[in-house]
Amino acid sequence: MMRTLTRKGAATRQRILEGAAALIREHGVADTTLDDVLAGTATSKSQLFHYFPGGREELLLAVARLEADRVLEDQRPQLGDLTSWPAWQAWRDKVVDRYRRQGRLCPLNSVTSHLGSRTPGAQAVVTELMRSWQAEIAAGVRHMRDAGEIGPDVDPDRAAAALLAGIQGGVLIQMSTGETTHLEAALDMGLAHLRAGRARPGRVADGL
């Protein structure tokens, strides 16, 4: 458990963390050393180890958490307001734009891959991100189903899982090709599938 910090201490820790994350986004984790972080954030070694006693591994794990939070924040407010088809389209566009701007280097994947299985916390970061992301998409599907915009037999959690799998697959291909074509296709086909099962007027109420 992280110890309680003063306001100044918390600000210093956040400055180091955000500086490290910026360097990793630009250069990748393999080419970012602690010396780079010290120079880039104007931090002494004693300061860095004061806030990250575990050294580089603890700092990288904190960067992973920061990047995981950023994945969801970059989709807001659209992700939390999937209550109409225009809203879903706006979210789709937001996701595509987010990954197009990110480019071929995914900082979260870079950090978690580097940490690997030797750092259980890294897997937990990704697991929690996927769980939260799927839950928010599922909430949108559930809202649309209850409003009669999606068929009553659609399982919100499975539909959200399929959309999320499509996004992740598209992002993985983008990391190899630099193109968002597959990501866009996965989202477009996923949303088209949901819309194709739209409940007909009067069928939700009479149970047919």
UniProtKB/TrEMBL annotation:
Task: Extract the InterPro entries matched here.
Answer: Homeodomain-like_sf, HTH_TetR, Tet_transcr_reg_TetR-rel_C_sf, TetR_C
Record Pfam families: TetR_C_13 (PF16925), TetR_N (PF00440)
**Which residue ranges hold the DNA-binding region?**
33-52
Q: Which Gene3D superfamilies match?
A: Tetracycline Repressor, domain 2
Q: Which residues form a coiled coil?
A: none
Report whether Transcription shows up as a keyword of the record. Answer: yes
Segments forming domain HTH tetR-type: 10-70
The answer to keyword DNA-binding applying to this record is: yes
* Keyword vocabulary terms for this entry: DNA-binding, Transcription, Transcription regulation
Its recorded name reads TetR/AcrR family transcriptional regulator
Task: Provide the species name.
Answer: Microbispora triticiradicis
What's the source species' lineage?
Bacteria, Bacillati, Actinomycetota, Actinomycetes, Streptosporangiales
